[in-house]
């Protein structure tokens, strides 16, 4: 299957992408991984992206699209893929449509993870990270440490990252609503949109997503 995964910040896209890709036996292609891989390998696109990023500028759509297209052309993606974090806007979605059409393939579904805005703020703003090891992550509501402000694993101080503050989260949501959310209507018009609730436990959301994708695929058959 060829799938695009969309949803607001805090919807759990990265987590669900990993589980869905494994269950469907297709590669998980994220924008972050594309940038890191191209920059570390020193590809032409990676050099272009790094130049923009070093200057504090956004990487142009054509560079991101080029990276995505190269990745989708690799052997492990011939039977399908799951795109996470791309496309981010309608122009990228249209470019993706054109690229796939030129290769004689098309998307099977666009999975929209739906989460209420207040829940997004609660999920992200409640995160606390250990100063000693950023892999030690807690949440004031969902996975609180035994002692407030203290890491259960190593005893380090827990803190809230600047980009996890409520103010920053709401700004990120504004960007999502303005730039990314319009692609939902773009794909709805093509009959590709599959929307599920991303509330609940991780495995419950994964099961919900798999059932929705299988139902959608059966309906298209």
Topology (SSEs and partners):
Blueprint: E1 2-6, H1 13-24, E2 28-30, H2 31-41, H3 44-54, H4 61-72, E3 81-84, H5 90-102, E4 109-114, H6 117-125, E5 127-130, E6 137-139, E7 158-159, H7 166-180, H8 182-188, E8 193-197, H9 202-220
Parallel strand pairs: 1-3, 1-4, 2-3, 4-8
Antiparallel strand pairs: 5-6, 5-7
Helix pairs in contact: 1-9, 2-3, 2-4, 3-4, 4-5, 6-7
Task: Please characterize this protein's 3D structure.
The two termini are 13 Å apart. A hairpin with a 6-residue loop joins β5 and β6 (137-139). The chain has helices at 13-24, 31-41, 44-54, 61-72, 90-102, 117-125, 166-180, 182-188, 202-220, and strands spanning 2-6, 28-30, 81-84, 109-114, 127-130, 137-139, 158-159, 193-197. The protein is of the alpha/beta class and 221 residues long. The mean pLDDT is 93. Helices cover 49% and strands 14% of the residues. It has one domain: Rossmann fold (3-Layer(aba) Sandwich), CATH 3.40.50. The strands form 2 sheets. Strands 2-3-1-4-8 form a 5-stranded parallel sheet, sandwiched between helices. α2 (31-41) crosses α4 (61-72) and α3 packs antiparallel against α4. The protein is built from 9 helices and 8 strands. This is Adenylate kinase. One of its GO terms (biological process) is AMP salvage.
